[in-house]
Write a structure and sequence with these properties.
Elements (H helix, E strand, L loop, with lengths): L1 H19 L6 H9 L1 E5 L4 E4 L3 E8 L6 E12 L2 E12 L6 E4 L3 E2 L2 E2 L14 E4 L2 E9 L3 E5 L5 E5 L3 E5 L6 E7 L3
Antiparallel strand pairs: 1-2, 1-14, 2-3, 3-4, 4-5, 5-6, 5-10, 7-8, 9-10, 10-11, 11-12, 12-13, 13-14
């Protein structure tokens, strides 16, 4: 009877350890999950991340001195970082003309998926090739990922819905996820 009890206890311990443990996510999954949703920056910029796209809307000033930016990009997450390619941009600096850019990404009545070259992720920097920006992972911790973006800047993305943009010349610019997409 004692041996049977020990076997039952051992089975319960074995099952609880292996059935309840959550395997660690790979960097690609962390980036996709932690980015997902609607983000709001302190300056009022809205950024929406999905699994395959992100959209940015920023406006400030007034009708005589408008500062407007609206962009849509394809995005692809990878274990080495995040690749993005802008397909639409509308921009007006205060006192300047409205400029815009659009790249056709439609083919056969569907969007042409973003194809990346994972060898373009370079450690501790971003790389740009064929219009695709490759932001590389510099550091991975349990609760954040540090991305190297362009011009020596970095971005720290936390698991709790906070993101901090860190320009190479100093300063911190925070964004908060205000809604998670399903």
């Amino acid at each position: 009877m004692k041996i049977l009890s020990l076997i039952v206890v051992a089975m319960i311990v074995f099952l609880s350890v292996f059935s309840c443990s959550i395997p660690p996510m790979d960097p690609k999954s962390k980036l996709a999950e932690w980015r997902n949703g609607v983000w709001l920056s302190a300056d009022g910029t809205y950024t929406i991340y999905t699994n395959t796209h992100y959209f940015v809307l920023m406006a400030s000033g007034d009708s005589t001195s408008a500062n407007i930016y609206c962009g849509a990009s394809q995005v692809q997450y990878h274990n080495k970082g995040m690749a993005r390619k802008q397909v639409i941009r509308v921009r007006q600096f205060p006192g300047g003309d409205l400029t815009w850019f659009k790249e056709n990404v439609l083919g056969n009545n569907a969007e042409i998926p973003l194809e990346i070259d994972s060898t373009q992720f370079a450690p501790n920097t971003c790389n740009i090739k064929d219009g695709i920006i490759y932001d590389s992972i510099t550091e991975i911790a349990k609760d954040y990922i540090l991305l190297s973006t362009c011009n020596g800047d970095k971005e720290k993305i936390f698991s709790n819905g906070v993101s901090v943009y860190l320009p190479k010349d100093g300063g911190e610019f925070y964004s908060m996820r205000i809604e998670r997409l399903r």
